């Protein structure tokens, strides 16, 4: 059997999850392993639709595949020449029938051999007689630009029955209307794992990303591929704006250090492919409630609040502490981060339970890390150094890699 000119990519990670749809909210249907070769059939929202063994079709995240210039545009399109052409499960007229295709309908050709052609049919692989398919010069990606900007208006198409359009990006938000499978909305923007959309009658609301597909594609992002790359992580730089936090003997403020460290951690985490959201990216005032709610709003997989300790008297305290509130929800995150932070130049005080607002009122796994004492001469020497900041960023990333294994 010859591979029709479909693009193939090789899995570079130890393992990559295969999902039943193009998004993290779809259920897992299995995994592919390092070295596996996958034929790409389609692209949607930074996900590749791939053909697996046993003619199964699934979706993998493009950023977990070692390829920066892949496109489904190399898959050939064929036109059905015969009315009510039968689609078989296998390349055998005695195998189960998957359905029929109307004359003149276009199909994506995946594989071809002399008598049989394998096509993409209703999300799976099917076979039709080669004599019933006429080849074309068209490719399956020719109508979809792979350079579509995220800012362009796209369509979203409902894939689940009774999909709710809500007034807010929240599963408890008031329902504006209910949509059927196949209903299309104009895509306006994204809010966490929700899409803001507009209906043809002008009504605007939010639909969950896991019940729709989105038009438009984007080139793959090449990155280190680990399980962390499927995570959304909130980094919370403590204090900000009018709240300067603790002050060092050098008259430098905690709020400036927490932001600088948050940005360094974000940069390190983004190398893994993780999605990272900061509660503030400038010298902004943010309430504790806003910080905690953001974690819930975007259904973060982990929330890390950054602070620097201060003792009542100068030079009376030293060390790094990782706080959690709920042992069941937050304990393993605290333990995995702390196990890496033990390597820091500043001594480690371990993990501790503490009733802190951003942890107590946080629905997601969350910790607060005190990265040293800002009014300790010995700790401050490290806190104010680029090397220590880089150490912290690497250790937090490594701790999260362990956590998501």
UniProtKB/TrEMBL annotation:
It comes from Companilactobacillus nantensis DSM 16982. SUPFAM superfamilies: Zn-dependent exopeptidases. Residues 137-157 are annotated as: Disordered. CDD domains: MurNAc-LAA. This is N-acetylmuramoyl-L-alanine amidase. It comes from the Bacteria. The keyword Amino-acid biosynthesis does not apply. InterPro entries: MurNAc-LAA_cat, N-acetylmuramoyl-L-ala_amidase, N-acetylmuramoyl_amidase_3, SH3-like_bac-type. One of its GO terms (cellular component) is outer membrane-bounded periplasmic space. Residues 139-150 have a biased composition (Low complexity). The lineage of its organism: Bacteria, Bacillati, Bacillota, Bacilli, Lactobacillales. GO terms for molecular function: N-acetylmuramoyl-L-alanine amidase activity.
